[in-house]
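Incident review: delayed structure delivery

Summary: a single-chain prediction request sat in the queue longer than the usual turnaround. Root cause was a stuck worker, restarted by the on-call engineer. No data loss occurred. The affected request and its eventual output are reproduced below so the record is complete for anyone auditing the incident later.

Affected input:
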Amino acid sequence: MQKQSSIFLIAAAGLTLLFGCSETVHKREYSGSSSCMECHEKFYKLWAPSHHAKALQPWSADLAAALPPQPEPIEAEGLFYMTHITPERGWMSDDQGKEYNIKYAMGGKNYYNFLTLMDDGRLQVLPVIYDVQHDEWKNTTLSMLRHFEDGQQDTPVSWRDSMLTFNAECFRCHVSQSESNYDPETDTYATTWEEPGISCESCHGPASEHVRVCKEAPTNNPPKNLEIIKWNEMSVEQQNASCAGCHTKGGAITDGFETQDNYWDHYDLTTFEHADYYPNGRDLGENYTMGSWWLSPCATKGNLSCTYCHTSSGRYKFKDNPNEACLPCHEKRRLDAAEHMHHPNGGATKCTDCHMAMHSFGGMNQSDHSMRPPMPNLSIAVGSRNACTLCHTDKSNEWALEHVREWHPTFDKDTEFEMKRALLVQALRDGDWDQLPAVLDYIKDPESDPLFTTSMIRLLPPTNDPQQHSILRDLATEAKHPLVRSAAAAALDGDNNPGDRPTLLAALSDPIRLVRVRAAERLAAVPEKEIPEPDRDSFKAAMEEMWTANNLRLDHWGSHYNAANILMRQQRYRKAAEKYDRAHELRDDIAPPLINGAMAFANLNELEAAETRLIQATRLPEPSPEAHFNLGLLYAEQGKTDQAETHLRKAFELQPQNAQAAYNLAILVSNKNMPETFRLLRAAIEADPYNPRHVETLAYYYMQTRQPDLAKKIIEQAFERGVTSPGLQSMYGQIGQ
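Output delivered after worker restart:
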């Protein structure tokens, strides 16, 4: 009897297992936006004509009807191009008779770019665009020129350049659920996507299960689990992150972002170290909104997300009553709007006129989402735009500042923190290292803005200054914001500063992938045997994440260049040289792949190959001080002193803050021009005040020319800055004797 029961129980268990295996598992798959229309017709009809839905559209009769005829051919790179429009087909032809079929149109808010399919699978932007805002046909790349206000000159690229290849640059944010399918062996694409434009499922996730459970549910009795991402159940951070993938100047470290994910697990962010920003964080170039929004008090203090003002399809909710967008937080300002705006005779009547001033750059209209008021004092200090003079184009910033101070007597005090952080960024950009103490005070303050802190960290000079390293170590593990932690980790030196390694090892276990990747990059050259046993698993995992991030874009020069830099640190010079050469093949108009490639060949003792690449780098249209510097060093090592001096002088001329150029040139001319040697070494110390070698060398030459008092003075000044070394200590002792 007992035995029989046991058999029954086993059989029953087997039946249970079999029944369990037979349960149907429904996989969440993409159904397409059309699957939403049956139940959500109202929202579908609002989405369908939106800029999201039309981010990319195939040629159609509707598109043809929206385009006026091109009145005359437009010149591009020596040929004249004409656009031909019919309901069935669009194409562009040049004056040599070659035709390019228009397969897709991209954009439509500011202008339409037209794409043609090349034989290698590239979808290439064609040389003529249609400017929607000005109702005008234009040369594509000339219309994209950026006009900087500091004298920088932008130059047009060829319309065939990879920067205008849809598969390489644009596809992630203009189509839904895309795969670039780039083949590095053949340098071809087989790009696919679920549907053109930004679909419903781009923001709400795969809809197949949602459709299934809703159709199976009884009428008027919807399922408890709708099997769809509901934005009203997402946190503010999740909502902002879902928009940020396309609305930031970011860099992907994975290709797996999905709605509800943490942005920093998938992207890095360009901040105010970049020329497309003014030093105060105002937009100069195209930065895609979120960098400004994350500065806004609405986001930092008001806990608002993008969808407070916009629908998930990008439409503005307050188009008819824009001032309603500022409620309920600013009810008082809305009620006394005329008094607050100081424009009794009209002009500025909307909050956004002053707080979200619109400007155009490179053909793109963009509004300032930082919501900050006009600050003419910052315009005077760092050159940024302000709403006053964007509207009153005949007036000066000084005129605007006079009025603002009259209206707001505490204006200068209220904006003092804005002025302080902007001037610190400006100082770092300019190489004004006298401001380093103030910069370090700012970045170590936990109340400082994370975007400004990150910008300053990225602009810090490489140095052995113990205070700087101590602050960065604290930030890499203790800073609240993951962007700050990642920037601090990237600024540490696991190769040459063993004191940084414990912090970087700790950062390998950070909950955010971006921090782990940046820490792994700084530890990549450390032999695994030197990694403590308890950290080896996290080290291996983070290294895998790092290489995944680096290999994400094998069609982009930067992926090969960054990988080569790591390989150089690992002393894998042959592989690094191959990667640098591949980077140069993909982008042959910039110097860094050539310069670093030359270093790889120099380490392989292939000096002719190194020289060839450096000469090529010095002949690029954009002058490269680094190319001249490294070519000068190569010639100096070969005893070609005249050629070395020529290139070191050129490097120092192009980059007066290049301490190494000044230092090496000083030594090179020391046998014929000692006054210049002194001047150059003082310049090197000014540019890099924490490098003891520069001080030692200047003190040495002072001693050699029988000027011990000057040698003593320069060493004592170094000691006051906290700079010391055995050589300096020994030399100082000799002077004392």
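Verification: The mean pLDDT is 93.
Action items: add queue-age alerting; document worker restart procedure.
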